[in-house]
Amino acid sequence: MWGKTPFWILDNCVIEVRNLGTARDWYKKTLGLREASGEREGDSGRPFVDLRVSNDDTSLTLVEREAAASTQSEHVIFFAKNLEKTRQWLMERGVTVEVATSDSGGNRFFRFQDLEGNAIEVGVEPG
C-alpha cells in the first residue's frame, strides 16, 4: 500500500456535512487530507474546517449544515494522474468506488461517496 495521496484538488470546493467532527476525521484518516493552518472567518456563520492535500492554498471545505437543511454541496472533483492507481488506493482504505468510465468528451473518471453519501468524482489530470 502506498501512502502519498494520489490526487489533488484543482479548485476550492465545499461539502456540507451533518457531523463536522466525524467527517473531518474520515477525510483525514481515509483520504489523507490535512487541516489547513491559519484561521479564517466563514461566510455562513456555521462551523467549518478547511482540508488540503498538500501545502498549496487549494482546499476542500467541510461545512456543518443545519439539521433541517438539505445538502447543497458543490460538484466536487479531485484530479489524478493515474485513475487505476487512485481507485486501488481508495479501495485499500475501504472506500467503495465505481468503475472508471468516459464521458462524451473522452474525459475519464470514477466516483465514490464519503461516509455521509456525498459524491466525489476523480478525473484524469486536465491538459
General description of the model:
Helices cover 17% and strands 31% of the residues. With 127 residues, the protein is an alpha+beta fold. It has a single domain (7-124), classed as 2,3-Dihydroxybiphenyl 1,2-Dioxygenase, domain 1, CATH 3.10.180. It has a five-stranded mixed β-sheet, covered by helices on one side. Strand 7 (101-102) and strand 8 (108-113) form a beta hairpin.
Outline:
This protein has 127 residues and is of the alpha+beta class. 17% of the residues lie in helices and 31% in strands. The model has no long low-confidence stretch (mean pLDDT 88).
Topology readout:
Layout (H helix, E strand, L loop, with lengths): L6 E3 L3 E5 L2 H12 L2 E2 L12 E5 L7 E5 L11 E5 L2 H10 L8 E2 L5 E6 L5 E6 L3
Parallel strand pairs: 2-5, 6-9
Antiparallel strand pairs: 1-6, 3-4, 4-5, 7-8, 8-9
